[in-house]
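Weekly modeling sync, notes
Attendees: AB, CL, MP (scribe)

Item 1: holo prediction request
CL wants a bound-state model with S-adenosylmethionine before deciding which constructs to order. AB pointed out that an apo prediction alone won't tell us much about the pocket. Agreed to run with the ligand included and paste results into these notes for async review.

Input as submitted:
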Amino acid sequence: MTDALDGVRQHYRATGLTERLKTALTALGPEDQRLTPQQLGALDQFHTRGLAATAELAKLAGITADMSVLDVGAGVGGPARFLAATYGCRVTGVDLSEPFVDAARYLTGRTGQSGQVSFQSASALALPFDGGRFDVVLLQHVAMNISDRTRLYREIRRVLKAGGRFATFDIVSSGGEPHYPVPWARTPATSFLLTAAATRDAIEPAGFRTLAWQDDTEAAKAWIAQLRTSGPPPSPNLGVVMGPDFAQLAANLARNLMEGRLGILTAVFEAA
Ligand SMILES: C[S@@+](CC[C@H](N)C(=O)[O-])C[C@H]1O[C@@H](n2cnc3c(N)ncnc32)[C@H](O)[C@@H]1O
């Protein structure tokens, strides 16, 4: 494990996460009551614009029931469960954080999807799969934690079938140093932002052709403005996952977007 990966693991160490989730979810009903991916949306979609962003990315990627999908940096598994419930596809999630993988398995049991959605702990830089195994790979708000982008995108290309799709939803640098702490890094030591153009320059040489390319910064700003009016959702939210300083991390992300320091990129590529 390199220093950079160790630092990222520390950031997402989430001590006692599954137990905290069990306690928080009593607000939604008893342990044996089946939950829907929608009910969990405020705590298991760990990216800007939550469930709506996952739904849009999945649509752009053209996911269908017969596909095998890999979610790289799957977090606590919200996007994977949503895709399986919406499209009927099989989804595998990998994540560096063992507590997140444990929580993802627990939440998937609570939604009754364990036969269709599975998780394992692994690094995006050494995916534990044979080549050409997946139809679609998703990467949502993960790349900013990874310095070796060449290796990241080559690994994603390796596990995709020829003609498969790579769908990414990223935070990108757009001028000036961000204010820290942010949701993916409490200091700059675990933050490896690239501009949107540099991201494309890293992805295409790994064996990809661009199919869709969208600047979603304005949509993210509108979402933030709406959250400021409505306040945080009353259901259990990402504060349960990341701890009591999450409100400050999220406020800094909002400030960085509003000040034009960061942007949001949605893009879909075809494996050549
Ligand atoms: C902001 S969360 C996003 C989680 C999920 N993609 C979502 O949108 O709900 C970033 C995730 O990336 C994972 N991650 C960061 N670097 C990673 C790496 N090198 N390999 C695998 N997972 C990684 C973290 O552990 C964390 O769960």
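Recorded for review: The pocket of S-adenosylmethionine is lined by residues 5, 8, 12, 45-47, 73-75, 78-79, 94-97, 100, 123-125, 140-142, 145-146, 183-184 (CB under 6 Å).
Action items: CL to compare against the apo run; MP to circulate these notes.
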